[in-house]
Write a structure and sequence with these properties.
single chain, hpI Integrase, Chain A, three-stranded antiparallel β-sheet, 3 domains, DNA polymerase, domain 1
């Protein structure tokens, strides 16, 4: 393709852009292909001095999303793929559209991804969409690398409850605030997003009352009332009350997102003492070799504990904010163990009657 000589039009990587001054800075606006029937009208519109261009600044993620969705690569995707990935691209543009493409680093991507850590499937699709954006940025010459290549996807599957040995070593090795976060998740059975919201003002007569927010279900809410275990109250009393929330940053400010808590748990799980216990659990075949433990697993710990206390499924569901069916799903292993223990008590409680044999004169029965 020859060099296009049209006023204020420049070609980059085979794509056409209209260059104009906005607030004293050069801004490049994507144009249709020169052989497109829309080219002349769009060029004429942009050439008018009074035209006011409203949109994200070039070089931002918001601008990159718009440019990517106008690219041949995007249009070549199937309709279903465009629909699914398009939702995440819009989410990226809405939440992070102001960020510069060049400024995206792995450390910030970890934090952005972990905003959806409670729903690993969503987090992984989000990361895939972001990776596509970064590949488009490389094509445009805005980056030389794809930072998403350094970010692992989250494990999808069951949220495993923390084994007793792992829980004990984590509580011993954790910093005071991380320990309180673990205890809060363990004793309340709530998601990390709700735990970071909990406030002292929500406690009435030893009961934590609040509205549970389920982000993955379109912001659905459910009112719950959680009896506060003495262990939880003891842990709360150990730390100064520096915020309206139970959990807070080192500065004393409430946690703005769940990312900081997730990062603290990742660091804790990598501690030598914790890794030693995990290795021992694997050696004893108590957990799988690739097992991982998240904050959400504490929700299953709480569910199993309440089942072993003899509380019925409906009551547990009201406390934890889940359906009775989910309670039964989360506690299936605890129930199996309870049945086994009950059977063992009955089996060992009886007596095995000795079996006697009568022998004839030949010594044969």
């Amino acid at each position: 393709m020859g060099r296009l000589a049209v006023k204020n039009v420049t070609e980059r990587a085979g794509l056409l852009y209209f260059r104009r001054k906005i607030a004293g800075k050069d801004v490049y606006i994507r144009l249709p292909a020169v052989d497109s029937p829309d080219f002349a009208a769009e060029y004429a519109r942009l050439s008018k001095p009074e035209t006011v261009i409203v949109g994200p600044a070039r070089g931002t993620l918001g601008w990159l999303v718009a440019d990517y969705r106008a690219s041949p690569e995007w249009k070549a995707k199937g309709l279903k793929t465009r629909e699914n990935q398009g939702r995440y691209l819009q989410l990226i543009a809405t939440v992070h559209g102001h960020r510069t493409v060049a400024g995206v680093r792995p450390v910030s991507l970890f934090k952005m991804r972990d905003e959806y850590a409670d729903t690993p499937g969503k987090a992984n699709v989000w990361l895939s969409a972001f990776g596509s954006l970064m590949r488009h940025a490389i094509k445009l010459g805005l980056r030389d690398d794809n930072p998403c290549d350094k970010i692992p996807i989250l494990a999808i599957g069951e949220h495993e409850p923390w084994p007793a040995d792992l829980l004990a070593v984590c509580l011993a090795e954790a910093t005071p605030m991380t320990r309180l976060a673990i205890v809060t998740g363990l004793c309340s059975g709530q998601r990390v997003s709700d735990c970071v919201r909990m406030q002292y003002g929500w406690i009435t007569a030893g009961i934590m009352e609040f509205t549970q927010v389920k982000k993955r279900k379109g912001g659905m809410t459910k009112d719950v009332a959680v009896p506060m275990h003495p262990f939880w109250l003891e842990e709360l009393a150990k730390l100064p009350r520096r915020s309206v929330t139970l959990l807070y940053e080192r500065s004393g400010a409430p946690f703005k997102t769940t990312a900081a808590i997730q990062e603290r748990l990742r660091k804790l799980m990598s501690e030598p003492a914790v890794q030693e216990v995990i290795a021992d659990l694997i050696a004893r075949e108590m957990i799988l070799e690739d097992a991982s433990f998240s904050f959400h697993g504490l929700r299953k710990n709480a569910c199993c504990y309440l089942v072993e206390c003899g509380i019925n499924d409906s009551e547990i569901g009201e406390i934890l904010g889940m359906s009775p069916e989910m309670v039964r799903h989360y506690s299936k292993r605890a129930r199996a163990l309870m049945v086994a223990r009950g059977a063992a008590d009955r089996m060992t409680g009886g007596k095995i009657t000795p079996i006697t044999f009568k022998l004839d004169q030949t010594g044969v029965r």
